[in-house]
């Protein structure tokens, strides 16, 4: 019961990565063999990874990148590109 309340508080504080990591640790039996410090470290690492992935997703969405393909390369511009080295 106490863990469920803790998970809800993590979501409320917008620590989504930590909440998901804790939920995941509850389902894995191998995590119970780890020390408190090791488990906490894994949870914090998961939160950091979650935040970095969210930032990257926002940046990629804002970049509005076009899909690139080798056929669309412009070899006429002076960039030192050669068809023989790019195409295989």
What number is the mean pLDDT? Answer: 88
Query: With helices defined by DSSP (H or I, 4 residues minimum), what is the helix count?
Result: 4
Helix content: 55-70%
The main β sheet shows up as: none
Explain what the structure shows.
By secondary structure, the protein is an all-alpha fold. Helices cover 62% and strands 0% of the residues. It has helices at residues 2-12, 16-27, 36-63, 83-86. The longest helix is centred in the middle third of the chain and has 28 residues, at 36-63.
Would you summarize the structure shown here?
The protein is about 60% helix and about 0% strand. The chain is built from 4 helices and no strands.
Keywords summarizing the entry:
88 residues, mainly alpha, elongated
Question: What is the element layout, followed by pairings?
Answer:
Elements (H helix, E strand, L loop, with lengths): L1 H11 L3 H12 L8 H28 L19 H4 L2
Helix pairs in contact: 1-2, 2-3
């Amino acid at each position: 019961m106490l863990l469920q309340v803790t998970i809800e508080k993590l979501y409320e504080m917008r620590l989504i990565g930590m909440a998901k990591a804790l939920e995941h640790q509850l389902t894995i039996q191998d995590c119970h063999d780890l020390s408190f410090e090791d488990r906490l470290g894994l949870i914090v690492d998961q939160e950091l990874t979650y935040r970095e992935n969210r930032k990257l997703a926002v940046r990629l969405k804002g970049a509005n990148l076009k899909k690139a393909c080798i056929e669309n390369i412009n070899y006429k511009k002076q960039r030192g590109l050669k068809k023989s080295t790019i195409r295989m």
